[in-house]
Design a protein that fits this description.
The chain has a two-stranded parallel sheet. It has one domain: Winged helix-like DNA-binding domain superfamily/Winged helix DNA-binding domain (Arc Repressor Mutant, subunit A), CATH 1.10.10. By secondary structure, it is mainly α. 42% of the residues lie in helices and 4% in strands. The longest helix is centred in the middle third of the chain and has 14 residues. The protein binds a DNA duplex through α2, α3 and β2.
Length: 114
DNA sequence: AATTTGACGCAGC
DNA sequence: AGCTGCGCCAAAT
């Protein structure tokens, strides 16, 4: 019979961290991977891709690659969703790239400081 | 079961 | 400063 697909634990961990990203801020896959000690930023990418199927309330549009590029925009239902959402949060995007990326860059470590 | 791909990152050139 | 190659680990074919 149909077997309910189990969600690997680290998927949930990644989703949890992504949900903690403050509006108007962005982060990169490597930062999350390092924070969760996944050992590979690719895992974060995979987890986020699946996140849409697991939880539709994940602000995955705030996760970019280390260059600040919207590398995952093509994976969304609408390629323009990611940019539109980020711009609506006050982030300027030029050629699928975040302007002043370092300025908006957020690190999971921030949640520990508070 | 083996090979390829992937929402990545970094060192080297 | 941009391109190439390699490493990372899991999922898909």
């Amino acid at each position: 019979m149909t077997k309910p697909k189990q969600i690997p634990p680290y998927y949930t961990s990644v989703i949890d961290v992504v949900k903690l990203i403050p509006p108007g801020r962005v982060t990169n896959y490597g930062a999350i991977a390092d924070f969760l000690a996944l050992g590979s930023a690719r895992m974060v990418g995979w987890a986020l891709h699946k996140s849409g199927l697991v939880d539709g309330d994940v602000p995955a549009h705030r996760v970019l690659n280390r260059k600040g590029e919207l590398s995952g925009r093509l994976a969304f239902s609408d390629p323009n969703y990611m940019q539109a959402k980020l711009e609506s949060e006050g982030i300027i995007i030029k050629d699928h790239r975040v302007v002043d990326f370092a300025k908006y860059h957020w690190h999971p470590e921030e949640i520990l400081k508070t």
